[in-house]
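2.7 Reproducibility. Because tokenized structures are sensitive to small changes in the input, we list the exact sequence used for Pentatricopeptide repeat-containing protein, including any N-terminal residues retained from the expression construct. No trimming or masking was applied before prediction.
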Amino acid sequence: METTFRELKGGKREGDRFFCYDVYFDTNVPNRFPILNEAKEEVGLGVEDFLGCTEGVCENADTGRKVEKDVSAIVRKVTEVLRGEACVMSVEERLNEMDVEFDCDVVENVLKRCFKVPDLGLRFFDWVKVKNGRFVTTSVYNTMIYILGEAKRFELVEGLCEEMEKGSCKKDIKTWTILISQYGKTNAFGKVLLLFEEMKKAGFEPDLAVYKVMLHTLCKCGKADIAMEFYKEMVSREMQPDISLYKLLLDCLARSGDIDAIHFVADDMIKISEIPEGDVYAYMLKSFCISGRIREALEVIRDMKNRDIAIEPEHFQTLVKGMCRADRMSDALEIVDILKRKDAIDKNIYGIIINGYLRRNDISKALELFQSLKDCGQVLTISTYTELMQHLFRGNEFEKAFDMYNTMLETGLELDSVAITAVVAGYVQQNCVSEAWEVVKNMEDKGMKLTSKCYMIFIKELCKISRSDEAINVLDHMKASNLDITDTIFNWIISHLRKKGELGKIERVKQIQRASCEKEETTLDSSSIQIEPKVLDSVATQIADKSFTDHDLQRVCKIVSSSIDWCLKEESLQKLDILITPELVVEVLENCSLHGGAALQFFSWVGKKDGYRHTSETYNMAMKIAGKGKDFGYMRILFNEMKRNGLLVSSDTWTIMILQYGRIGLTEIALKIFKDMKESGCRPNISTYKSLIISLCGKKGRKVNEAIDVYMEMIQAGFVPDKELLEIYLECLCEVDNVLEAKRCVNNLCSLGFSTPLANSLCIRALCRAGKVDEALLMVDEVGDKDQNTLNGYIYGSLIHGLLRKRRLQEALDKIESMKEAGIFPTVHVYTSLVVYYFKEKQISKALEVFETMKEEGCEPTIVTYSSLIRGYVCNGKTDEAWNVFRKMKNEGPLPDFKTYSMFISCLCKEGKSEEAMQLLSEMLSVGFAPSTVNFRDVFYGLNREGKHNLAQTIWRRSSGLQGCSDLLTCSEPRGTLYLLLNLEL
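Resulting structure tokens (single pass, no recycling of outputs):
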């Protein structure tokens, strides 16, 4: 064989195989590869270092080429076990009895089959770790992290990352890219920036994919200045954005008003990326128009003239559209008149003007213009007809809407799926179901097909008029048409049938769902969860598909969150030229949730507008805001309104109520709601169980026996608890001395696929947190030698922390030394615990010495470490030093989180510096954290104690505006626990 050891050294390890170019080395046939002996002689590597999988044994001794084995049959067999119906044996037992040959490829492909059922994938993943950890490679971890990230299960993602750090599977560039991408989708730009820095510290240089994700995330979050820094760094490394990324960056910069930066990027587009100058100016024009910056857009037109760049009709269309969006209809009409005089106008311009009137809900002017154009023989676009028809349907003007539809047919316009869907929905609303089906079938006879989204609208409209049989027929029709029926559709219709008590029809829907899943599995492509440019670019597509622009959202939020009276806010909202949609309302409510009362007034106001109707999503968001403000009466009113209006009351709706009552200790009510939920036929999901159990385990309203019952019910329902839930549940059991139940829970975890060391570590850590260090040490001694080293790695920090809390310093130091001898060195948790201990003992120099040692050892301080420094300084009378640490966090990272702010506020108030704490309350709002009742109470009481009663009054007024629903039209005074507390103090 020609391959030399020099080539081998340039290869790479991937999982349990070793690749060098295309050469694959297998342990079963080591004598075929003489270079292995050369490797052993040169650097001490032997056959055992080149781990191989039996599925890839090289049959060709001359070439050493890897022979791929088709694992699809094995993958299908394992997936059938995982997705099999309930039986006496557990999933893990059935997997153990399978007579199949597992390897890392099988594991990875099985996980990809579990893409839509992350809990099932995680269960299999945990089983594999116990069965044979050798098959859990970095690539497998990447797949699992991606799946959990897509499901927004970030607490589990964090757990897997910790496992990778502790184990032999280190993160690769793809791991970092996945993490940055998944957190980026949630707009958690702070976390994304932190990950980017951690990636570089780990020795990985960002590639083009990483920079793309960073720019997408920052632009979505409106962080134009930071996005520009990353863009410049990216270009300096000779990486070029594609067109979609340039457009996204220009849109973001335009919204921020950074005109210089826009021209800087535009110059790069021309000089570096060699994009034609005319195209670049067209992109700039569109960005300015989207953001409502008409003056800057006109300047672009002027520059184009000066540079002799041809101004095409589409440029004027963009400008007119921008003016309509910015509520400058008179200016838009003036441009139309100019174009008419120059005979340079087309039907698209008229469509834009009509759309402008519709955005202002001025349907009469839109129809007047439409009729005049029609009388002049002007043929308008299909989208213009559709928009008019949709507005007429919303206004219950069905006759006019159907006349519009017939006009479309008479003029010979080719209908698209959006127009067809509007007509179908209109017929169903009139209870003309047969006519709706006829429209669908006529369309299909012409070779057209509706999308899944269109069919979802069809189904929802049928359910609104109680035609669930027809809705199920739509599912059958979709299946026969080979259309993808998403889980969202299935879950929605099942929930609807449960709510209506039509339980007999649910099984029919589930049969269709099972058949759909089986078909999907036979066609699933493993590349479907790879991070490709097209996946990254989908962010821009999602933005384009929204029913509103970011500029619209910002305009509404600015009014709602302003400090003016509601009557003035209402006048300002009435003047906005914005089409109000449920999607926009949800975003406004979420963005203005810090201004709870104003947000709910907006919800009430928009619900009365003609042509608008609230959805389940808007009600859910409003209920969440009311619950957070402790206005449970209004939350109940919203819940009953949903039911009266025939909207879907899903498990998410019930969970919101359970969570809001449970979080303040009203667990009796939370339990009653949980019971009502099940009696209504709505099945609790994992979030429901988690919210209720955490509430029952809390200090307020603790009900341990009920928590145990709900936990067991959750397990029997097939849900697997996550790390956060387990920690809270076990700590609660340990605090009430129910260690026997805690150990029983640990045994159950092992049967669910958790490794024995991991399960035991959760219980030991809970014992430490509950202050039962001796019981924890005893449990460590009971663990077998085989699992001892792994267990020590998990519990090291918790044991040290527990001993130090009991002031058993010498035992803690002895434990640290014994762990070092075993090759386990102090973690950030250990160092932080020592810092906390020495500060409590007033040994400030010793605490700082530990902190310096920590950094010298390469152990990076976390938010908890810096927060401990702040607390320690304040409690020891060194407030200036505490502020220095806080500023360092804000400037250099890690950025302070909600807990850091809350802790700092509490410490300052205790030390008689409540006015400084008051400043932190304002700062919390500016960085996006909603101060809690406890935050306001600490500052209020502190200011009163210090004799600063006027400032205390200011805090009271601010808290009632932010957290309650006090400025609702239906409310005469502030409500909630906070108001009562403050009033009593006054």
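The radius of gyration is 32 Å.
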